[in-house]
Design a protein that fits this description.
With 205 residues, the chain is of the alpha/beta class. It has one domain: Rossmann fold (3-Layer(aba) Sandwich), CATH 3.40.50.620. 35% of the residues lie in helices and 16% in strands. It has a six-stranded parallel β-sheet. Bound molecules: adenosine-5'-triphosphate.
């Protein structure tokens, strides 16, 4: 009997500062799990964010909060590789590493619409697009006032939309609410909110 063709492993990469991780990050991961038949989804907190002006909270805190935030999603693993790598964190390096580790895997890169718009400014972005299918989630934070995201030519076939409920949440807003002693409500999951409080994070805006 002929061997049944094995489906290649489907791995999604979800990078970000996660400073802190919030409800929209988790909703985006849930949407990807629902849509992409993933074997695993790697949440990869950035080490040195070359594209963010503000210094990030220490990686150990961001990793710990990410583990708490995504704990209920069994296919999600928090991957520390970018925080352990010297120099700026480039997504292309992460994708190259994963491709070496899983040569037959199908890779997906999950991005909010703001990051998808910025993608053509990223280091080796064409290689990124050739290595992973880019899955773009709506942000719903006023982005609709900007032109709708359109995939850069000639790579349209490498992009797909990730339907998810619009959640107008950002880590920036959460940090300023904490600094202003305002309630967070459902923007941040309880274990993450407790971690923030216990470790006195984001006390100043
Ligand atoms: P900051 O406000 O500090 O810039 P952020 O809320 O944008 O942070 P990041 O950790 O930078 O969070 O984002 C990681 C990824 O999650 C990015 O691809 C970003 O576009 C996406 N993302 C963040 N917030 C949302 C949201 N509300 N809806 C959809 N995607 C989001």
């Amino acid at each position: 009997m002929a061997p049944s063709p094995q489906r290649s492993r489907r791995i999604a990469v979800f990078g970000g500062a996660f400073d802190p991780p919030h409800a929209a990050h988790v909703a985006l991961a849930q949407a990807a799990l629902a849509e992409l038949q993933l074997d695993e989804l790697r949440v990869i907190p950035t080490g040195q964010a070359w594209h963010k002006a503000r210094p990030l909270s220490p990686a150990a805190h961001r990793l710990a909060m990410a583990r708490l935030a995504f704990a209920d999603l069994p296919q999600v693993l928090v991957d520390a590789r970018e925080t352990e790598r010297a120099g700026p964190s480039y997504t292309v390096d992460t994708l190259r590493e994963l491709k070496r580790e899983w040569p037959d895997a199908e890779l997906f890169l999950l991005l909010g619409e703001d990051q998808a718009r910025a993608l053509p400014s990223w280091h080796a972005w064409q290689e990124i697009v050739q290595t992973a299918i880019i899955c773009v989630a709506d942000r719903g934070d006023g982005a609709e006032t900007q032109a709708q995201f359109s995939a850069p030519k000639p790579y349209e076939s490498r992009f797909r939309r990730l339907p998810m409920p619009a959640l107008p949440v950002s880590a920036t807003e959460i940090r300023s609410r904490i600094a202003a002693h305002q309630a967070l409500g459902p923007l941040v999951f309880e274990p993450v909110a407790r971690y923030i409080e216990d470790n006195h994070l984001y006390q100043t805006a």
